[in-house]
């Protein structure tokens, strides 16, 4: 497929009007015997990668049902998200083992690509647990992580922990080369968070949410992350979790190079208002807000492409929003060699958007999804 006259997102993070060649599953350079598509007036961007979502369309990663991942993958691809890393909730080791084992069974590559799994709990502090179930919270456990990672086939891309918990420093030191260690669901102050980053933690789980506020006398985890240039920070841009002014502030504080847009979407995403569940807890959805009975936010009901659109509506330049939703997440999980840019040799995961940022066409490994 030759996509003619598109505004193509380039590796130097700008848009250039040119042709884009999809040669089988990869971006290519040959033009012989390929069908053509006129994409005049359309943007061509790398497919988005969501490294933190729980579910959509009535399905949750933790359901571990036979059709769970296929349903999530289909919805994500239709939305312009061509790769995803679903996150678990806080459960017992036995339940988590079944969830991760189920992920190893997905072999069909229809829809978005399953790029690994995200262990969001149970190594979290109770006071900042958010919508996680307190019954299963526990200190960081190195052998438990390795057992779960083995069951997943070595697919745990990220693990969240609260660095103030007993054993956190040892956990970070032991596992920093085996997975991405992300700080979150924590009461940690600046000094504790800084030490954790010095030891090898390199990521922040949903910046501003489930952590101490960014204060001028106690900058907390946010300030510690800012002070460590190699640290990346997730941002839920659904218009509920983080105010538009704080989205703009985060991009200025961390730069577009370090922000990773995520959806944190739960099973109600793509469905109507009503009553759902997350991690076994009742969730009520009204509009774009999902809450537990006590009013605690329970994930989002916004997919990553809508988060990108929100970011642009909040004042983030489109090129920066694409970088945060497509380029950075692929880099964070170690997939930059094949994802996150439209360069020859990379996988042909491409999204065509019109000027209003509506999805016109989605390709996953060169195959049309929409």
UniProtKB/TrEMBL annotation:
This is N-acetylglucosamine-6-phosphate deacetylase. It comes from Eubacterium limosum. NCBIfam families: nagA. Residues 44-368 form the Amidohydrolase-related domain. The lineage of its organism: Bacteria, Bacillati, Bacillota, Clostridia, Eubacteriales. Belongs to the metallo-dependent hydrolases superfamily. NagA family. The keyword Transit peptide does not apply. It is an enzyme of class 3 (hydrolase). The keyword Metal-binding applies. InterPro entries: Amidohydro-rel, GlcNAc_6-P_deAcase, Metal-dep_hydrolase_composite, Metal_Hydrolase. One of its GO terms (molecular function) is N-acetylglucosamine-6-phosphate deacetylase activity. Keywords: Carbohydrate metabolism, Hydrolase, Metal-binding.
């Amino acid at each position: 497929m030759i996509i003619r006259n598109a505004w193509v997102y380039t590796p130097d993070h700008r848009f250039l009007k040119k042709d884009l060649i999809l040669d089988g599953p990869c971006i290519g350079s040959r033009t012989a015997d390929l069908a053509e598509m006129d994409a005049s007036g359309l943007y061509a961007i790398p497919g988005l990668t969501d490294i933190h979502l729980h579910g959509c369309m009535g399905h949750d990663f933790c359901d571990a049902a036979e059709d769970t991942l296929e349903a999530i993958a289909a919805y994500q691809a239709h939305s312009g998200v061509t790769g995803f890393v679903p996150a678990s909730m806080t459960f017992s080791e036995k339940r988590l083992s079944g969830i991760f084992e189920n992920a190893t069974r997905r072999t069909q590559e229809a829809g978005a690509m399953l790029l690994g799994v995200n262990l969001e709990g149970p190594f979290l502090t109770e006071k900042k647990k958010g919508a996680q179930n307190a019954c299963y919270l526990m200190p960081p456990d190195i052998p438990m992580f390795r057992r779960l990672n083995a069951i997943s086939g070595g697919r745990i891309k990220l693990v969240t922990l609260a660095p103030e918990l007993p054993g956190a420093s040892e956990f970070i030191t032991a596992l920093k080369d085996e997975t991405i260690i992300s700080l979150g669901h924590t009461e940690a102050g600046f000094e504790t968070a800084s030490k954790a980053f010095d030891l090898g933690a390199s990521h922040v789980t949903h910046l501003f949410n489930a952590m101490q506020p960014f204060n001028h006398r106690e900058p907390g985890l946010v300030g510690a992350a800012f002070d460590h240039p190699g640290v990346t920070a997730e941002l839920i841009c659904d218009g509920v979790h983080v105010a538009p002014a704080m989205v703009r502030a985060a991009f200025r504080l961390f730069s577009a190079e370090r922000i990773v847009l995520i959806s944190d979407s739960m099973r109600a995403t793509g469905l109507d208002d009503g009553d759902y569940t997350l991690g076994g807890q009742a969730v009520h959805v009204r509009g774009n807000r999902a809450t537990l009975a006590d009013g605690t936010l329970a994930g989002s009901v916004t997919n990553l492409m809508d988060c990108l659109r929100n970011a642009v509506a909040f004042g983030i330049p489109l090129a920066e929003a694409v970088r945060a939703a497509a380029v950075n997440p692929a880099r964070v999980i170690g997939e930059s060699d094949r994802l996150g840019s439209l360069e020859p040799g990379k996988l042909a995961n491409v999204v065509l958007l019109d000027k209003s940022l509506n999805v016109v066409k989605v390709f996953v490994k060169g195959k049309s999804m929409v």
